[in-house]
Each structure stands twice: as structure tokens, then as C-alpha cells.
Design goal:
homodimer, about 220 residues, mainly alpha, 11 helices, about 0% strand, DNA-binding, HTH_TetR (chains A, B), TetR family transcriptional regulator (chains A, B), Homeodomain-like_sf (chains A, B)
Chain lengths: ~220, ~220
DNA sequence: ACCTGAACACCGTTCAAGT
DNA sequence: ACCTGAACACCGTTCAAGT
């Protein structure tokens, strides 16, 4: 056991971190890394910071806004150097894959943090560099990031919750009913083929090709 | 006031609907239509059906699974006749737009109901009819439905929660900092231009063009 | 003016005990 | 065997009342 400086009562504990937005967000990131986003509750954070849940509302608007701040914190570590577009998007997706619940939350958030803007800027830059007209790039960046986020939200939750092994098997059997679902039966196993990684990257390729080829109205 | 047949006590009320999966799902749909998915709680449904929340678990596995059943119920009304691909996908999106929280839930669900399979089958058929190779169609259907669902989840929640008018304005100003975000500043208002409908349809067009052009690995 | 204790109004899910 | 009352273990957010 490490020596404690002094045993102090809760009442006169000395100068712990004073509360601030940064301290609240840092605590949220810490708890999420250690125990998952589900454990990041206002009450838990308050406990962590020796105060009551109401006090947190001085620094964050609500849970959704806090999730946005947590995302931006995570994106600070994103490496932008020496990447092509698919690689950068894959790195972004990898970050979210580790926290699928955060991805789910982000999907309904329109993030606006500094690091998210930096990511948008980099994606725009790479689209521009490959000759995509700015109008298509401007709308396309949304599509690309949405694909990344939705895939992370979808994937992660499915491996989290233990559903779908028996039930996917069962659905697959029903789907093969050639009378009711002729086209599904026709494509067969292809519907569920490929790894998550392969399908993610194919999705990016599809989007990039489509964005380059499709004029905005 | 309509005449009541007879005043009955709770104890000996006559033959109300006996509980069944269909009755539980129907109650969920009814409450969602009237008051939104947020009000569809196990306790509320139980109250509606004169029982306790525990009884519902005889008929549904959990909330997520119930949401899947509700989606499939909604899709029963989807009109498949005389549509091209973009039109069909738009109709599906319209259904989800009315219940953004359901869309959010569906995103992490891999729906497997009969009506969802019917939709997948129709999309596969239309892709096939337009000459897309089956391997690309098989992976592409996921991309198309994910775009629809994610857009509904995103859009709806944003107009539900009153965020983002002042805060989007503010983010837009920050983003125009040409030193920090040169490419964002370069594209300017294009980033936020267009109606939801326009961007949704453009997204479908992008995906369809990309799917047709991109081989699976 | 700034902060927070306590309350408001709820949740999903489980399980022992009934019938 | 089937069903359920009651409990377990929590939530986010608000606001009156303190300092």
C-alpha cells in the first residue's frame, strides 16, 4: 500500500481538482475507458468528483452534449499523417469501434468539436486532392462519416449484446424461402458474407466512387 | 358519452384480450403512434394491458426485440407497387422519419421480421433489374438501408431535441476559421446546404452509382 | 452569483412465490 | 407449467434553498 499523505476527512480534504468542464469531461473519458459508456452516468461522475449530480449541470448541458465532448477528446489522438482517405476513415472508425455506444450517441449529435472539425477538414482536403468537385465533397463528407459512425454503432452493439447466433441462423433459414423471398434466396450466403473490415472498406470505396460520379442537384 | 355495457370491477372484468405476443406488439405500436417511442416502456405497456411488467417477458425477450417487432408492424403498410429503387427507399425512410427514436433503435438491431425481409427482397430485385451484379447487390442492400435508417435517426432527433440553431450557427462561425480549417472554410456554406430530402436522395444516387461501379473483394 | 441536497418522476429486468 | 408482485438496482434532470 502506498503511503497516504495524511488521512483527511471528507469535510476538509485539501485542494482536490476544482470542478471545471475539462475535469468533468476527463472523468467521463476515464470511466468510459475503464468500464464502458453505460457506466458514465451523471451520478457516477458526481461520485467520482465528490459532488452531487446537479453540480455537473453547471459545466455540461446534458448527457448528449457530454458525449459530444467525450468524442472530441478521443479524436485528439487520431493520427492524420501520411494517410489516404480510406485509411483515415478507417482509423476514425477504429476509434469508434472500441466504444459502440458512443458511436450510437454520436449518430444523433452533429458533433462540432475542434477535433471533429479537423477530421472534416482533412477529409475535404483528401477529396479535393483526388479531384472531386467541392460541391460533391461538401455533401460527401457527411456520407462518409455517417457510414463510419453507423457501422461502428451497428457492429459493436451486436457483439456486445449476445443476440444473433442462433437467431441470425434462424433468420437466414427463413430468408432462404424461395417462394416468399426469391431474390434473397437467389443471392444466398452473399448477404452475410465478408468480414466487418472488408465491408467497411468496400462501403468507403462505393461512396468515394459514387461521390465522384454524382452531381449535386 | 358512450354507454358502458356494465360497470365491472377490476377483479371480475370479463374476457379482455388474453395476452399474447401480437397483443403486446399492437399495444406498443398504439402507444408509439399516440405518444412516441419514449412512452413505450414495459411498465406503461403492462398498465395498458392490466398486468405487471414481468408478464410481458413471457412474450418478448426485451425492449430491443420489441422494437424490432414494432418496426416490422410499421413496414406492413409499406407500398411496394410501381416504384423505382430510390422511390422505394424514400418510402421506407419516410416511415422511419415519423419515429426517429425507432430508427435509432433499429440501427443496432439487424431486423429480421417478415416485412423487413420483403423490403430487402424488393431492393435486391430492383438492383438486379438494373443490371447490378448479385455480389455487389448483396452487399449494397445493407448500405442502402443503413443510409436510410441512419438519416432518419439523425434527422428526427435533431428536430425533436431543440438543440442546434444557435449552436449550429456558432459551430459554423468557428468552422470558417480559414487558418485552422482551410478546406472547411473553402467549401463554405455548401457544407450545410440543401434540404434533408435532397441530401437523402443524393445519398441514394451516390450509393447506387458506387455499388454498380465497385467490385467486391 | 454560484452551487447543490434532495426530490421528482421515472426506468428494465429478475426471481421467489403463488396458482 | 405458467404467470406475476415486489424488489433490485438504478436513471436524468430540476429547483428551492443554502453560501
Amino acid at each position: 500500500m502506498a503511503a497516504r499523505r495524511e488521512p483527511v476527512s471528507r469535510r476538509d480534504r485539501p485542494a482536490k481538482d476544482p470542478l471545471s468542464r475539462a475535469v468533468v469531461v476527463a472523468a467521463a473519458v476515464r470511466v468510459m475507458r475503464a468500464e464502458g459508456l453505460e457506466r458514465v452516468t451523471m451520478r457516477r461522475l458526481a461520485g467520482e468528483l465528490d459532488t452531487g449530480p446537479a453540480s455537473l449541470y453547471v459545466y455540461v448541458d446534458n448527457m448528449a452534449e457530454l458525449h459530444g465532448a467525450v468524442l472530441d477528446e478521443l479524436l485528439a489522438e487520431l493520427d492524420f499523417s501520411g494517410t489516404d482517405l480510406v485509411e483515415l476513415l478507417s482509423r476514425y472508425t477504429q476509434v469508434l469501434f472500441e466504444y459502440p455506444s458512443l458511436a450510437r450517441s454520436v449518430l444523433t449529435l452533429r458533433p462540432s468539436g475542434a477535433n471533429y472539425l479537423r477530421l472534416i477538414d482533412a477529409v475535404l482536403g483528401l477529396l479535393d486532392a483526388s479531384g472531386v468537385p467541392v460541391s460533391r465533397a461538401a455533401w460527401g463528407v457527411d456520407l462518409l462519416l455517417q457510414h463510419a459512425t453507423a457501422t461502428a454503432a451497428e457492429h459493436g452493439t451486436r457483439s456486445e449484446s449476445g443476440l444473433h447466433d442462433a437467431s441470425v441462423q434462424e433468420a437466414a433459414l427463413v430468408a432462404m424461402d424461395a417462394d416468399r423471398y426469391p431474390h434473397v434466396a437467389g443471392v444466398g450466403d452473399l448477404l452475410w458474407s465478408g468480414s466487418g473490415e472488408q465491408r467497411l472498406r468496400w462501403g468507403f470505396a462505393v461512396l468515394i466512387a459514387g461521390i465522384a460520379a454524382t452531381a449535386v442537384p
